[in-house]
Each structure stands twice: as structure tokens, then as C-alpha cells.
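User: Quick sanity check before I run a bigger batch. Here is a single chain. Can you write out its predicted 3D structure?
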Amino acid sequence: MWLVLAFGASVFAALTSILAKIGIDGVNATLATAIRTCIVLLMSWGMVFITNTQAGILEIGKRSWLFLILSGICTGASWLCYYKALQMGEASKVVSIDKLSVVITMVLAAVILHETFTLKSAVGCALIGTGTLLMVL
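Assistant: Done. Predicted structure follows.
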């Protein structure tokens, strides 16, 4: 099931980029990010209430709160950078560079989370990095 959901995420991310590029025309990038964030917020809380999981908020520990807040700050910073870049550049190039997050995530996962970084992972990272360079140059 995670594979189906991950593929769904990639399709929706692609649609997000195209729809945002069209919608951001003539709109301040920061304002566009705020509007997008409000929609995401409504959808997220809607799913919490639809799945009746709102009581779980009381069970979240301090450490989890800290890292969820930090993650939220990073998400906001990422979206602000992304929307401004999308407004200024070509969608295909901005998205390609944005996807370098895959490489950065794999390296950080190996260093911070001690996840296995295999030869296959290294080759994949190199190919993604090389592909990104080819697409943006």
C-alpha cells in the first residue's frame, strides 16, 4: 500500500507544480504560499476529523512536538522558496532542482537516522544528481 500512496504523492506533487505555476501568475509568491497552506491545513484537519483521530493529539510527547514543529518550519521555508522559484523560473527546471531533496534526504537519513546507504543507493543518488544537472543546464 505504501507504494501506491507514494506514487499518488508523486502524481499530486506533479499536478501541484503545474497548477501552482498557472495560478501564481500575477500573484505574490508569499501570498500564494499562504493560500496553499490554508487549503492544506483545512484538508489535513478534515482528515483528522473524518478518521476520528483528534483525541490522539493529547498523546503526543514533547519530543514529537518539537520535531513536528521543526518539520513544519522546514516545510514552510521549503514552500516559500519553491513558490518564489516557481514564479521566477521554468516549472520543469524548478521541480528538477527541488527533487534533489531525494538525494539530500538519503544522505541525511544515512547520517542522522543510520539508515543503510548501499552501493545501489549511491548509484541512484548519483544518477538523480546527474539527471538534475542535465535537465537544468
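The mean pLDDT is 93.

User: Great, the batch can go ahead then.
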